[in-house]
Amino acid sequence: MLTPPQKNKHIGAAWACLGLLALTGGGCSHPGGHTPRVPAPPAVKSNSDHVLATIAAAEAQLAAGMAKASAGDAEHAREAFDRAIDVYLTAPPGTLSDVRLAKAYGHTIEQIHLREVEMRLGKDVISEAPQEPSAADNVAPMSVELAPSSDTARRLAEAAVRAKLSDFPVEANDAVLDCIELYRGPLRDWYAAALARGAPLLPYIRQVMASEGLPQDLAYVALVESAFKATALSRARARGVWQFIPATGQRFGLQQDWWVDERSHPEKATRAAARYLKELLAQLGNWNLALAAYNAGEHSLLKAAERYGTSDFWQLRDKGALPRETANYVPMIHAAIIVAKAPRDYGIEVPAEQELPFEYVPLREPVDLRTLAECAGCTLDHVRTLNPELRRMSTPVGRAFDVRVPRGTGLTALACLRALPPEKRLTFRRHVVARGQTLASIARRYHARASDIAEANGLTPRQRLSSGTELLIPVAAHHMSSAPHARARSRSPASGSAVRHRVRSGETLATIAAHYRTTVRAIERRNGLRSSRIVAGADLIIFPAK
């Protein structure tokens, strides 16, 4: 059930091609018979000179770009970075198979990528929202025996069980008492912070559990799973308050794409968790095994129960039949429920439970969350707290989305968003793939990341692109100056106003240039084209002669 995290790819397709050339530059075998020994040709000094000269020229442009970036001149920094890449792509014949060139090119790509990220930090709507470690990773593996129970804890816990303060069948055995000591000792601050964080969620979670016919105190499963952090992400890629792994989230209808991850949606994920817990109870027959299965998977628990011939969780725990995390997981839930019923008795102060008031604003176009916060008259952190399922600093593009804002601000926010000037709106460019283009080359053209373009369009990072395919290029409005068309406008002559021309079938750059009384080279330069090849449907920015 656990899915390992995917590794990021920081080097583009061109680097992969150069690396392949470097690795496969050897000769051919002769079929049959003896292969004649041919003496190796002497080293060609001129080729080595070409390689060193190419690397030096590229590094000079890279250094110039870094200096411009450090000075805050992002526009000219990106132009210098483009020139550094061009040095490699236009290297003299014979130099591309040199491993030194391949390594230097890879280093250049990585340095440019890292500096691009630095230039966009805190500003780019494309960057993924920050995540927090899950409680299950940091708390569940702890050794509960390090905190032996006291007489006071035992007395309080046994009184709570006798009084049946919980609608969940809690127990006060030694393992649970040891966990209570953890909560009132080493984990006191952690537990108090988790309860405070969960205060706005607990009323809703209880309501959902009751509507499904489940014990309302199953709400405290989320405390042990995530400490009620909607943005929690575990090492196993489990996400959200209820820590669904991707496959289980999909199984219970939680949408996961580049824009949103509903595993972090408190309401939808709670509904999914209630259904899952109900299913586990039906499969395993008692709550302790069902909770253990929520942590380790139902198949593992069914196998353990069958192997040891018992469906008693505590017996399986004593026999060492369970992973350490799972063995601790169930008693920690029992302990969390007992302490939550009377936290002051354990020296823990928590705020009163209260719902987080909000209302929905229907959106038909993507909106930067910072702009949304301004329109709603609240902080960005408040907007992100209300909408933790949003993975980017933007609402989704290409579909309607109901965003949550503080209660009482909906009408004002909606009116403000409708009146936004163009420069405050988000833009996502459409790019028609030309012959020979790759995700890496398209990403360089728009100063975007190939992985972002791939994910935004449902592609794999190394997927080949077909000519004529239309891609969505995520670009923030306040970063449009870094796009090729915008750069062309900024340095265009004042000979005429820019016009947008959509290429029709049968047209060439020569016929288009003649129509607008300009040159093929001017169109290529102003649109960042590396050749005269164009495809129907592509958009060109042209400055006609007066």
Give a verbal description of the structure.
It is a single chain. With 546 residues, the protein is mainly alpha-helical. Helices cover 48% and strands 7% of the residues. The chain is built from 24 helices and 8 strands. The strands form 4 sheets. A two-stranded parallel ribbon has the order 1-2. The radius of gyration is 30 Å and the shape is elongated. The relative contact order is 0.09.
Outline of the structure:
This protein is mostly helical. It has helices spanning 13-23, 45-70, 74-89, 99-120, 135-138, 151-163, 174-184, 188-198, 202-211, 221-226, 246-251, 266-284, 287-296, 298-308, 313-318, 324-341, 369-376, 380-386, 410-418, 439-446, 450-456, 484-490, 509-516, 520-526, and strands at residues 132-133, 232-233, 358-363, 401-406, 427-432, 470-475, 499-502, 539-542. The strands form 4 sheets. A two-stranded parallel sheet has the order 1-2.
Any descriptors?
mainly alpha; two-stranded parallel sheet; 546 residues; single chain; two-stranded antiparallel sheet
Q: What is the average per-residue confidence, as pLDDT, rounded to a whole number?
A: 78
- Give me the secondary-structure category: mainly alpha
Largest sheet: 2 strands, parallel
- Strand line-up across the major sheet: 1-2
Total strand segments: 8
Strand fraction: 5-15%
**Total number of helical segments?**
24
- What are the segments in which pLDDT stays under 50 over at least 5 consecutive residues? 1-45, 120-124, 476-496
State the share of residues found in helices, binned by percent: 40-55%
Oligomerization state: single chain
Q: What value does the Rg take, in angstroms?
A: 30 Å
N- and C-termini, Cα separation:
65 Å
| Overall shape | elongated
